[in-house]
Amino acid sequence: VIDIFNNFALGICEGQQLDMDFESKTSVSREEYLRMIELKTSVLLKGALQIGAVLGGANEKDIENIGEFGRCLGLAFQLQDDLLDTYGNVDVFGKNIGGDIVAGKKTILTIETISLLGLKAEIFVELLQNKTLSRYTKVNDVIKIYDQVGVKQIAEALIEEYFKRAYDSLMKISVPDERKVVLIEIAQNLMNRQN
Question: What does the alpha-carbon distance between residue 96 and residue 94 come to, in Å, rounded to a whole number?
């Protein structure tokens, strides 16, 4: 239990440091971004579930599978958070849309857009870094580019992929399905969340 706790505590710190490092990096790959959100978000869920499994007397394979469930669910959650920050309903989301755009944060949407734009990415990066535009103009201009390159659909596919991986890992755990219902409901609620 102590080892699991130490691993996720260290992971969270590493993930936060990577997030801060990304602020000054001009380019971040999908793999780097997924690693950062895994460390910053997923390791906490993974670790908490694994600690519960250890304390509940689970075997090593089940501990591994519940950890993978938490890791994948955490990744899907953070990717969905990126999507909701840009495409969510402000009345439901509970905060202004486009906060990540205005803050210049690297998200799955910006990273994939830069990748898809190729040589034209420089213009997009300049737009992201422009501090003179009004919030409304900047957010709307960035969203137009997101829509042109189809990045929303890419993010939705990644979210779906990680939710499926989470579900598949949960189904591998050697306990009766009725004992998995609560975790399935939590995963479904996260998948369908609007805020």
Answer: 7
Q: How far apart are CA 67 and CA 49, in angstroms?
A: 6
Contacting residues for 186 by C-beta, under 8 A, at least 6 apart: none
Nearest to 170 by CA among 102, 92, 80, 72: 72
Please give the structure tokens belonging to residue 193: 């969340």
Domains of the chain in sequence order = 2-191 (1.10.600.10)
Per residue in 69-122, pLDDT tens?
Answer: 999 999 999 999 999 999 987 777 667 889 999 988 899 999 999 999 988 999
3-state SS, residue 136: helix
Residue whose pair of structure tokens reads 């857009």 in the numeric block:
113
d(CA 126, CA 139): 13
What pLDDT score was predicted for residue 195? 62
In contact, 44 and 8? CB cutoff 8 Å? yes
| Greatest pairwise CA separation for the chain in angstroms | 58
Buried b (16+ CB within 10 A) or exposed e, 36-49: bbbbbbbbbbbbbb
Distance CA 186, CA 113 (A): 31
pLDDT tops 90 at residue 161: yes
Give the number of C-alpha atoms closer than 13 A to the C-alpha of residue 75, restricted to the C-beta side.
28
- Three-state DSSP at 176 gives coil
